Every structure is written in C-alpha cells, then in structure tokens.
Amino acid sequence: MPKTDVGRIVGKQLLRCGTSVGANYRAVCRARSTAEFVSKLGTVIEEADESCFWLEIIIEASLLKQQLVNSLLKEANEITAIMVASSNSASKRKSKI
Questions:
Q1: Contact status, residue 56 vs residue 7, Cβ threshold 8 Å
Q2: Distance CA 17, CA 82 (A)
Q3: Is 90 exposed, middle or buried (0-12, 13-18, 19+ CB in 10 A)?
Q4: What is the Cα–Cα distance from 23 to 54, expressed in whole angstroms?
Q5: What secondary structure, in 3-state letters, does the chain show?
Q6: Counting Cβ atoms within 10 Å, is residue 89 exposed (0-12), middle (13-18) or buried (19+)?
Q7: Fewest beta carbons within 10 Å, which of 27, 29, 40, 57?
Q8: Closest of 47, 64, 51 to residue 2, by C-alpha
C-alpha cells in the first residue's frame, strides 16, 4: 500500500476485517448450537464482504495495480460465497428440526 494517509487508512481497514474473518470463523467452529453457528457465521460473512469492499476500493482508487489485487479479491469473494452457502445449509437444517 502507498505510504499516504489514504493508503494507511484503507490498509488498516482491510487488515482489521481480513483478520476478523479468521478470528470469527474460529468462533464459528466452537458454536454450541446451530443457531449460534448461523449467527456467528453471519459475522464472518459480513467481515469477508467488507474485505471485498476494501479490495474494490483499492482497485477503484488505484492504490495498487489491479493485477496485484485481483487474485485477493477473487479469493475474498470465494470465501464469502462459501460462508453464505454454509449458512444457508445450516439454516435449512435448523428449520427442519
């Protein structure tokens, strides 16, 4: 990231939400019920989606070359999609109980 105010701010935001994905996913793995699992997974989805947002800002603001960011954005979108699918599956299972 560029060593500018914008670069530092955006970089810190991305760092916060990106690391939050992992920390909150760990909490998901320790959920005591399906309801808690789905709830905590919602936080993971929000943080993963926010990571996508900041990566898109990096591209739109030309803070880094798009080629450098594209693979990270793709992976962040994939993680978001996986978590959404997992949440949907768990919610369906919960409603059948």
A1: no
A2: 17
A3: middle
A4: 18
A5: CCCCHHHHHHHHHHHHHHHHHHHHHHHHHCCCCHHHHHHHHHHHHHHHHHHHHHHHHHHHCCCCCHHHHHHHHHHHHHHHHHHHHHHHHHHHHHHHC
A6: exposed
A7: 29
A8: 64
**Dist CA 43 CA 64 (whole Å):** 28
In this predicted structure, the answer to whether residue 95 has a pLDDT above a threshold of 80 is no
Cβ–Cβ < 8 Å for 17, 55: no
Residue ranges covered by each domain of the chain: 5-91
Q: Which tokens is 48 given?
A: 């993963």
Domain spanning 5-91, CATH class: mainly alpha
Residue tagged 């909150």 (tokens): 24
